[in-house]
Amino acid sequence: MIKFIKNLIFFLILTPLLSSGQIAQKVWYDGNSRAMFYRDALSGDLKDIDTTSTRSEGEGYTAIDLGMHFTPNNQIEIFSEIRIKNDFGYMWGSGAYVDLRRLSVKGILNDRISFNLGDMFLKQTAFTLNNFEQELSKNEPGVFQAYRDLIEYENFYLDDYWRMQGLQSNFSYTFYNAIKSVEADFFASRVRGVEWLGEPELLMLGGTSLIKLENNLSVAINHVNSFEVQSSSLDTATYYNPVTNLQLEYVKKINNLNYKLSLDLGGSTRGWQEKNESTIYEVSGGFFKGHLKATNKRIMTSIGFSYVDPDFRSAGAQSRRVNYISAPSSYAYYTNNTLLRPVSMMDITTDPNVYNNRLSTSLMHYNTLYTAVTPYGEATPNRVGPSFSFEYKNKDNSVLVSTEAAYYKELIGQGTTEKRALLSSGLMLTAHLDKLSPLKNKTVFEASVSNENVERGGSDLEAISFNSMMLSAGLSYELFKNLKIIGGLKSFTGKGNEVGSQRDEYDQVVGYELLDFDSKEDILMLGLQYNFTNDIYFSLQTNKIDIDDKTSEISQLSLSRIYFMFNMNL
Fold it and tell me: By the 8 A CB rule, do 404 and 426 touch?
């Protein structure tokens, strides 16, 4: 309480001081404001069986994130973002706090070299540094926007960037000969600080050099190196993981089509080294990806082929968003045995607290039920195979259709000489019905289906047959200007058997686990949404959530939810 009052007084004093010099010192503001509340009520069979859980529970808060930009001159900008949050149900500031959410200093040296010190967002390639999207999120209907905005904002998910802390600098030069331009970007980040009697300090250094030639050819080299500082811990072994990616890209326009051919190749090394510089364990692996894309105003088609070695490791590209060992916010413990509820589709869709925003030096745990084909994105090791995608939109953009498919084979078998065959496919449709029918009010329909299939031959113990399907749909109808009624569905089914691997501290497979799936999960949503602008809206909705795992008598949950969100991006 005392700390909160001190922070609040400091904030109230600092703001007018900065504002008083706004003209001379160029201070300007942005940020985000949010009010959120939800209440869940148990329903279904569990309501009668579970005598220890509350019949209903909920939470809510109001929060303001005020971003202050201080520009003392044209070359320097200081940015800070302060959060003021108050949980519903508390009085006199007992449930409120003031916190520093972001802080950075950026500028330009000699009008050529830019730098950023503090919080920064970094991304390179799908094999070096990339924050790929979580499972069950592809082609999600826009009616689930309130949940998606909450998850991405709270976890600093900006496209596929990782939010990190350190120093970044970049520069570019333009030429008038065979070389059109040269660009370079370098960064140094502290991923993990010093821990008392714990893990050593973890740093990541990286950079990108891009050369654009006048014949529409570009060459880029991307490199990152994650390593632990030996002197920062009493541990006898420290980790290192350099990864290099060479990119070649060629663009050409033929008739009405724009073609782009891109090639990625490179490799990684990961190991642990003792203080006497002797290596305890080390693996190396390479990758290759070729991709051809053709586009015009109405169509886009692409074909690709990728190869990722079983021993390829990249902390920056293989760190996952969903953390399956975390506790969900809603009914984290349930049944009369007070068991920790496993993370489900409901939590992946609605709960920002089950997400990870730090790089991991080991392969994070994943749930095969939800992501069996590429659990670590394009950098998933032990995969080889082609991919295809196609997109079409009509002349007035009233219809958008896209489809994609990928087929992979394992390079080596897991616990057997038999190899998995993995297939993923998807289809998406967006239709503006008011442009296609006599409807006068804006009406948008979205639907998508995604499928994953895993097969492996062999004996009864070796054989695998698993299939999952994700069906999503959404409909929004504008009752009058800016106010629309929204409805949505997300339905997931997974059935079959798989074999999960157990790994040691060096990510070596030391055992296997037989897995059986027969699961169905549904989220139904109906509500109202009013958009003041695209970034300022409120959404009031009711959800019906059902989780039914037929392989376990206790893995069932039915909830009825009331959800309200007011979101404002300044």
Answer: yes
Matching residue, tokens 């802080």: 103
CA separation for the pair 362, 224 (Å, rounded): 16
**What percent of the chain shows pLDDT beyond 90?**
70
What is d(CA 429, CA 433) in angstroms, rounded to the nearest whole number? 12
∠ CA 227-230-233, nearest 5°, is 115
β-strand pairing of 333-334 with 339-340: antiparallel
Token reading at 154: 């709270």
Count CB neighbours of 533 within 10 A.
Answer: 9
CA distance 353 to 168: 29
Please tell me the distance from the alpha carbon of residue 473 to that of residue 446, in angstroms, as a whole number. 5
User: How many other C-beta atoms lie within 10 A of the C-beta of residue 408?
Assistant: 23
Answer whether 38's CB lies under 8 Å from 60's CB.
yes
pLDDT value, residue 527: 97
Q: 361 Cβ partners below 8 Å, 6+ apart? A: 202, 226, 239, 241, 315
pLDDT tens across 11-34, in order?
444 444 444 444 445 888 899 999
Q: State how far the Cα of 41 lies from the Cα of 55, in Å rounded to an integer.
A: 6
- Whole-angstrom Cα distance, residue 49 to residue 249? 60
Q: What's the CA gap between 31 and 82, in Å, rounded?
A: 9
Residues 213 and 182 sit within 8 Å (Cβ to Cβ):
no
DSSP assignment string, 412-448? S-SSSS---EEEEEEEEEEEEHHHHSS--S-EEEEEE
pLDDT in tens, 371-416: 999 999 999 999 999 999 999 999 888 999 999 999 999 999 998 9
> In angstroms, rounded to a whole number, what is the distance separating the alpha carbons of residues 451 and 372?
10
Distance from C-alpha of 423 to C-alpha of 499, rounded to nearest angstrom: 17
Question: CA-to-CA distance for 366 and 376, rounded, in angstroms?
Answer: 9
Residues 139-147, mean pLDDT to the nearest whole number: 94
Predicted TM-score (pTM) of this structure? 0.91
Rounded to whole angstroms, the maximal C-alpha distance in the chain is 78
Indicate the residue type of 482.
Answer: N
Do 214 and 180 touch, CB atoms closer than 8 A? yes
- C-alpha distances (whole Å) from 317 to each of 193, 243, 372, 421 are 20, 10, 17, 23
Burial class, 322, CB count within 10 angstroms (exposed 0-12 / middle 13-18 / buried 19+)? buried
**What's residue 199's pLDDT?**
82
Distance of alpha carbon 171 from alpha carbon 240, whole angstroms: 28
d(CA 452, CA 501): 19
Q: Which residues pair with 514 in a beta bridge?
A: 499
Structure tokens at 537: 């809206």
Q: Report the C-alpha gap between 473 and 143 in whole angstroms.
A: 9
489 SS3 class: strand
Q: How many angstroms separate the CA atoms of 527 and 538, rounded?
A: 11
Residues 6+ apart with CB under 8 A from 502: 509, 510, 511, 512, 513
Measured between alpha carbons, how far is residue 56 from residues 62, 442, 516 in Å?
21, 36, 31
Closest to 139 in 3D by CA, of 387, 525, 383, 400: 400
Confidence band of 93 (pLDDT split at 50, 70, 90): low
